[in-house]
Amino acid sequence: MKANVHGHKETRTRTGIKILLTSLSAMVAETSTFPIDLTKTRLQLHGESQPLSSSTRRPTNSFRVAAGIVRDQGVSGLYKGLSPAIIRHLFYTPIRIVGYENLRNLVSADGSLSLSSKALVGGISGAIAQFVASPADLVKVRMQADGRLINKGLQPRYKGLFDAFNKIVAMEGLGGLWKGVLPNVQRAFLVNMGLSATMLSCPVDVVKTRMMNQAASKEGNVLYKSSYDCLVKTVKIEGLTALWKGFFPTWARLGPWQFFFWVSYEKFRQISGLSSF
Question: Start-end of the Solcar repeats (predicted)?
Answer without folding.
Answer: 17-106, 113-181, 183-271
